[in-house]
Amino acid sequence: MLILYDGTTSVCAIKVRLTLVEKGLSFESRKLDLRKGDQFSQTYLKINPNAVVPTLIDGKDTIIESSVIMQYLEDLAPDPTLLPESPVNRAQMRLWLKRIDDPLHPSTGILTHATAFRPIFLKKSWKEQKEHFNRMPDQGRRLRQETVYKEGLNAPIVENAIFVFNKFVEDAELTLRKNTYLAGSNYSLADAAATPYLNRLNDLNFLQVWADSKPHVLHWFKRIKERPSFKSAITSFLTEKDIEQFANVDDSGAAKAKFLLKKVRGV
User: Fold this and answer.
1) What pTM value is reported for the model?
2) Which residue, 2, 229, 256, 258, has fewest beta-carbon neighbours within 10 Å?
3) How do residues 241-254 score in pLDDT, each as one tens digit?
């Protein structure tokens, strides 16, 4: 039995859960409460020293990094395949995976922590906040969180995150005008990887920024939500606390994004 250490709303964990479900693979989910800091426990650090999820355990083997895990699962169970048929589409799929890992993933963290997670973090005591940052092995991630927890949507890195997402959505729109999915005519690892990020935009009320200008992306997302894997790998994992956390996000982030993009376009 495959064992997946994951988090209910972790975009990286969702990528892997979608892959598992789409490929019909059974797995045991061992959920970590990331808000409480379970990922920093000494027990988990022995499994994944990066203090992030997901981590896949396959017998005696441990695989980390979500995109690596997705491709491991494809190699482990190639039928049904989530690889495009042609070499050029496979290359396109890998480019999407690379782009999602960087710069889209850090940008997602910036927008999420600046909006949904910031009010909860600010309720912590100074000691708890300091302990949280001191336990983070990735200094870049720590600095990004420190900045947005301090400055919120006014942090300069928020602007860059919005521009990163805008470029991603623009390029996805161009691709989806020609193709049914991101890497050709069939659902692939690229779609599984992109899904949690577009879903996070939706949860943070940012997706409305592109609702009118990027119809093919919105249509793709609508079709993705209709796939059985969306409910199995995303919706069914949400707790009441998760739902409440994102339900309280207002439209201030979307308003800032609209203002910035309008300013850049000179409209």
Assistant:
1) 0.96
2) 258
3) 999 999 999 999 99
